[in-house]
Request: fold
Amino acid sequence: MSEASKERLFEALDLFRAKINENARLQQMNRDWNRDIAVVAKDLPEVQASIEMREGQMDWRPQAAENPHIVLTAPADVLIGIFRGDSTPTEPYLDGSLTLRGSQEDVLRLDFVSLMIWGE
Reply:
């Protein structure tokens, strides 16, 4: 994948962060959910990203999470679509292009966050 794909992924993470951090209801619901999430683009092995959820706020870094609670793995275009709200995580998860590793509770919470900011 190209440098453009890396930039598109980082732009999508910026948008996802903005949508989460501007949603007061979501912040309140996630005030006690503190998690580190690894974002792995299968086709961009040189690109590392991690999401940090702390007290209802989200931030992300262009580096790997050391001990992630959740690991999201998919091709860059799938991750970009999810973080931009162009698609829900459900279809890529069901067709096997998105894998999530983490506790059932954390995976459900992350899916709920996506639904709260983007809808179905």
Residues 3-118 form a domain with the Nonspecific Lipid-transfer Protein; Chain A fold (CATH 3.30.1050.10). The beta strands are 35-41, 49-54, 57-61, 70-74, 99-101. The mean pLDDT is 91.
